[in-house]
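Example record

The entry below shows one chain as it appears in the dataset: sequence first, then structure tokens.
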Amino acid sequence: LMALGLHLPDRIVSSEFLNFEGVKFSKSQGIGIWLPQALAKFDPDAIRFYLVHNGPETKDATFRWHDFEQRVNADLIGNLGNFWNRTFAMTHRYFGAIPDAAVVSEESIALRKQIEEAFREVGACIERTELRQALLTILGLSRQANGYLERREPWRRIATDQPHVGETLLVCCEVADALRRLAAPFLPGAVGRLNAYLGNEDVSWEQCSLVAGTPIAAPAILFPKIDPA
């Protein structure tokens, strides 16, 4: 590169070794995962998710089928996918569109600040090629939003306090939109399906305001659950 007069790399990106069920991958011995067979059984995003979540960035890691099933079902589906589905399902059921909120509570303001922080942190992690930490930060935001949803119980309050439910689901839709943008580098298939569902292809790296009254249809399941068998 120096002889050609080209700019030398500023940082070398590398990782440690990924093993399979505790032993080294070996094509000659038939030890490992063949992608055509894996893709015939599993969503590509599930494989991407686990390889980043369990990536050997700083130390050796091992691909285990049992751990793959647990991490995908618990973290990808039970946390992130579940938040997207619950948010859009309740928004569709109670309002049919993005609701508006005349008053926003301190709890909602705090969660909105977490959105802003997530864009900064995830972006910085990607710049440093710390992809696992970036993904964990995304899951952390989703986990916080799930907790917010549980505490505010819109399914219980809809009959008595519609403004409370409108505020809750507006903020949840804002988080859901932010998660769609944050997850785009990691889950392109799922985010593509979300884009088609929402009629919004914009995944620019920024927190965006949602337009009240934008229709929200009933959502479909984003990720098929992995059967332990």
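Notes for this example: The chain has a mean pLDDT of 95. Strands lie at 18-20, 61-63.
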